[in-house]
Amino acid sequence: MDDNARPHRAAIVDNFLECEGIQRMEWPAYSPDLNPIENIWKALGQAVCRCFPPPAALSDLETALQEEWRLLDSAVDNHLGTSMIIRCTLCI
Question: What's the predicted TM-score (pTM) here?
């Protein structure tokens, strides 16, 4: 699986994948709905927005992001990982 970027389609990459017996999966060039990290960024952003008081300085924002990242529920990660099959099926 790749995002169809030109470097991923270089002959050397194609040759390597073929030699290793790796098959490519068709993948839309730009598909944020299929990228679980986009959902994690959203969850992180929402968590920081709930902070009170809101971060007032860049250093406060950095601290809040690091803290919320640490506290991010692993259930969110697990759900996003297991939902990939459903999202790929819906996209196809």
Answer: 0.54
